[in-house]
Amino acid sequence: MILALDAMGGDNAPEEIIKGAIEACRETGGNLKILLIGNKNEIKKYPLIDTMEIIHTDISIGMDEHPAEAFKQKKNSSMGIGINLQKEGKADAFLSAGNTGALVAFSLLTLGRLRGVRRPALATFFPTKKGHSLVLDVGANSEVKPEFLYQFGVMGSIYLQKVYGIDRPSVGLLSMGEERIKGGSLIQEAHRLLEGGSINFYGNIEGHDILEGKTDICVTGGFTGNAILKFGESLVSFVMDILKDEIYRSFRAKMGAFLMKPAFYNLLSKVNYEEYGGAVLLGVDGISVASHGKSKAKAIKNAINLTYKFHQEKVNEVIKEELL
To answer: How far apart are CA 256 and CA 294, in angstroms?
Structure first.
């Protein structure tokens, strides 16, 4: 696989991006070529390997830039060049830890949608008591229609089957109650479509069911999904800050924390975004993956491994066959 990698995207670029890419190249046994896109003077400060090539640009997209404006004004940015390389057939996939909104805009407007797909969906994993659950959409669509939610369920199912080997993953539709009459006309119609499809539809689920791991997949609109994602990320740091404050209040608390240290590390590993790699934009005519803006080498490595498996399993071809 030839991967176009945004070397300038994210808070820790380019050093951690390069480190993660080198680790991924070693794990894939030489079956991966990396096109590092960004400022060559910055990239060359770090050691590279033979399967890496630099494509120079001194233009990058900031995390706070508006996606539409970035697309219009920065086509020669590291993100714009990387996605266009895929459009031209010179790369098989693109990965960035930069501006996710810009990634969605560039991918959709440059690559277009797969045949049969109404809207793409950004899919990422949430930790659960049973392992993890795929939630989509988490930000590609602020408004949805019932048929979009149905297709999200189909695409998510194919993704888990092909990349993670989960046979007939269960799909839940996020609603304000488990009863099929809950959630308004949008959710009720989406429920009807999902129930009548070929996927393993569980039914409606509520917010607390996501962390319980009631279903393998949670389908929702991008506005709601993004709000849940951002709340969940902030909740982890909020709880940890409170624990730290309580631990330092007394010697007894410090001793208890010392004894609980292995349990704390185990908890953190389960909720750490680095373990899940990246969020795949399902439904575009190519492979676009967004990694967390704070990603370090481990997260980048895992995101590249995810991208590699997605490419090897030809997930997009299966989605096209299913939705045509």
So the answer is: 31
